[in-house]
Amino acid sequence: AMPGLLDCPAPCSKANSDANDVVRAAERVLAGAVRGGAAAPSPVANLAIEVRGFGFSYGAFRALDGVSFEARAGEVFALCGPRGCGAQTMLCAIGRTLPGVGEWESEGDILVAGTSVVHDVSPDRARNLAATAFAKGLPEEQSVFNALARPLRLRGVHDDAALRDAIDAALDAAGAGSLLAPRMGGRTCSLPPLDQRLVRLVQALLLDPQVLLVEEPMRGLSCEDAHFMQGTLRRIAKSRGIAVVIASCDAHEVDALADRAAFFLEGRLVEVGAPGELASPNADYRARSFFEGRMR
Fold first, then answer.
1. CB 274 within 8 A of CB 261
2. According to DSSP H, which parts of 15-155 are helical?
3. For residue 37, what are the contacts with CB-CB under 8 A and spacing of at least 6?
4. Where are the alpha helices (DSSP H) in the chain?
5. What CA–CA distance (Å, rounded) separates 219 from 143?
6. 8 Å CB contact between 209 and 236
7. pTM of this prediction?
8. What does the alpha-carbon distance between residue 264 and residue 88 come to, in Å, rounded to a whole number?
9. Pick from 77, 80, 87: nearest CA to 288
10. What are the pLDDT digits (tens) for 103-157?
11. How do residues 159-191 score in pLDDT, each as one tens digit?
């Protein structure tokens, strides 16, 4: 299982400085919530991720080989392909949840908002720049409010009013207030699957990331809940102006959710484009086979 970024507080020397940072982050979250469906900044001018010749090995096994692509702020970008293709490994590499990234097992670079998460920052800082949702389950004996407050408390925010304001803003940004606000006093273990995922999503948003990473966001959800999750991730990308990057081996999920997709096979990037382009007669035949359901 991937390590949980929320278990790794960013190092800090002054609690008050950290608290001010979180307040400013919460203000940005709230601004996004107020904008609602407002247009995001021009995606062409705002690269959220740049992957440059990235490779990664598990011992003698070559998991990723010479991968290069870009993802834009404000879009939902999918890393996709059949199981074992390398998409999940790429997602973990962006979020620095793979051991060995930046050491002898990897080469190349990954930039998030212009910062190398491979060479220039600590893994903890990298996990705040590119925050991973759904990385692990929620502690059972914990209220919903305390679960949401945890990333803020780790950053030195303990005032109840400040916590509630920041959480409310993040809930609004995710469009999850109607589902989670009435359940703040309940236990996380009593939440249905969609609500548990929304809690993890809001926890990640409270880190004020430049990129949100999500693995198979609609897997195991009912059709209605999957539609809600689809709208939530699109809303976050557009209103916050950040890249939402998903990893999925489900072509239908990618087609329904992604603005653009990178198709992987055997650790190599084959083609990048809109899902409709990757399913067209002009696409690489392997990508077309995946989107036609003939490759899983």
1. yes
2. 15-35, 87-94, 123-129, 144-153
3. 235, 238, 239
4. 15-35, 87-94, 123-129, 144-153, 160-174, 177-180, 193-205, 223-240, 251-257, 275-278, 285-291
5. 25
6. no
7. 0.81
8. 10
9. 80
10. 557 899 999 999 999 999 998 899 999 999 976 667 667 899 999 999 899 889 9
11. 999 999 999 999 998 999 999 999 999 998 889
